[in-house]
Amino acid sequence: MQIARYNPVFGNLLGVYYEIFSYFVNLVRVPWHACNNESLSLPNLKILKARQFVSDVSVNLIKNTVGNLSEISILCDDTNNKRLIQVIYQNCPNLRFLKLSLVNNINILISEFENILINCQL
Is the residue at 58 inside a domain? Predict the structure, then answer.
């Protein structure tokens, strides 16, 4: 599903669109492009494929899956990659596939990747 970036004409409609997804609590897989709804909760989500998510949105969504995620693929150029990696290894013990696009501070993130290898089933 493709979602357009914020548009003054459709801005409120996008908010409703994100709100509707909160009712799909049994949603298992979601491919997404450009989401900025930090309160989105999909507790049964197993596969997350996201492009251009704000890292806070990804962090909250991963926390709200309560350990059900087994596959994560996130492409974002946000600066809070360390927090994103921490949330993954703290909340995804069943993770079997991980693909992240990391732009900033890759040297600092190496120790965080070690925690993913220890705490997840990769």
Answer: yes
Per residue in 27-65, pLDDT (tens digit) is 666 655 545 556 677 788 888 888 766 677 788 889 988
- Coarse DSSP helix, strand, coil percentages of the chain, rounded to the nearest 5 percent: 35, 15, 45
Q: Write the pLDDT tens digit of every residue in 85-100.
A: 899 999 999 999 999 8
Is there a domain that residue 5 lies in? no
Terminal C-alpha separation, the chain = 27
Token pair of 87 as six digits? 């949330």
Number of folded domains that form the chain: 1
Tell me the C-alpha distance between 33 and 9, whole Å: 19
Q: Is residue 1 part of a domain?
A: no
